[in-house]
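Sample log: tRNA-dihydrouridine synthase.
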Amino acid sequence: MDGDLGEECLIIPPQELLSDYDSVNVAAPMVRYSKLPFRHLVSLYDVHVTHTPMILAKEFSRSAEARRFDFSTSKQERGTFNLVERNGKRRRRVRGVLIAQFASSDSRSFADAVELIHPYVDGVDLNCGCPQDWAYQECIGSFLLRQPDTVRDIVRAAKARVDSNYPISIKIRVDKDLKRTDQLIQTAIHAGVSHITVHGRTRHQSSEGTPVSLSSIKFAVEAARGAVPVLANGDVWTRGDCERFKQETGASAVMSARGLLANPALFSGFTDTPPEAVESFVRLATGYGLIFPLFHRHIAYMLESQLPRQERLYLNTLCSYAGVIDFLQSMGLQWTTEGETSVHSI
Ligand SMILES: Cc1cc2nc3c(=O)[nH]c(=O)nc-3n(C[C@H](O)[C@H](O)[C@H](O)COP(=O)(O)O)c2cc1C
């Protein structure tokens, strides 16, 4: 993040940020992990677009308790950045963008959820990629990949409910039959989506087992024919990957998930998590509040490549904030409690 919110900055919708500015970086939606402290952390390291974890639209719209549990935000989490316009090359000060992601199988609950959350975020994404069996059986996530008409109805209903210009995007996986991907993209564009994220794997391919297919993402970019920005997702681990993936696919920007868990500063060009990122994470997690198991997992991911095996095993055995904080202090890390971390919930 290049500055604080005290300065004048442009507040623009996600699709404009993605189409009009060079080098926009995106943090993926991640169940459990992409919560407020982590989103704020990555915004300190050149992440301009962040996502909430996937939230079940039906639960969110029905229950105040689900809303409190699933979503919180703060004034500071998005950050402001000096970005260069693609055309004209002017430098502008721009606010980062926060997108909420919902899973839904029906337009009514999606529109209800969008209506509730839209004042607090800059756009809403429909999950069309979750490959898990339970999700498929509930007709959400990757089930929607072969249901373009349902996607169209969901997108239209949300826009009709809040505002026809309100940004609604989709995040998809590719289909092994790319004609299906083409059909989904055409239908979604016709329904008015603001942008599309393409994870270059099919719903049967795991991230660990199959490398991302850049040629499938390129196919999706070409299918969109420049009508909306397309983001490339999958296997972005370094800043070098970002440039290469954009060149090879023609995507407007790239999105990272596991790469950012391992190194939240990857888009700033760090090859490993810098100590100050761990320090900032402790400050943000303790300031905003984050349940211990998640705090612990984040710290373990960030330090995994840097700790000798014995220390990694020791870190895994710790079972309290105090234990992890002692461990980090014994490594020479320090942090202050300064900085605004007031939370806003719905
Ligand atoms: C822990 C974890 C949680 C995830 N949760 C979500 C989610 O809530 N919504 C979603 O669309 N994708 C989710 N994904 C998929 C990622 O957003 C991304 O598409 C996938 O991991 C490929 O990107 P990567 O190679 O950069 O990890 C998740 C991935 C991980 C590793």
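Observation: The chain has two domains: 14-268, 275-345.
Observation: The first helix runs from residue 14 to 20.
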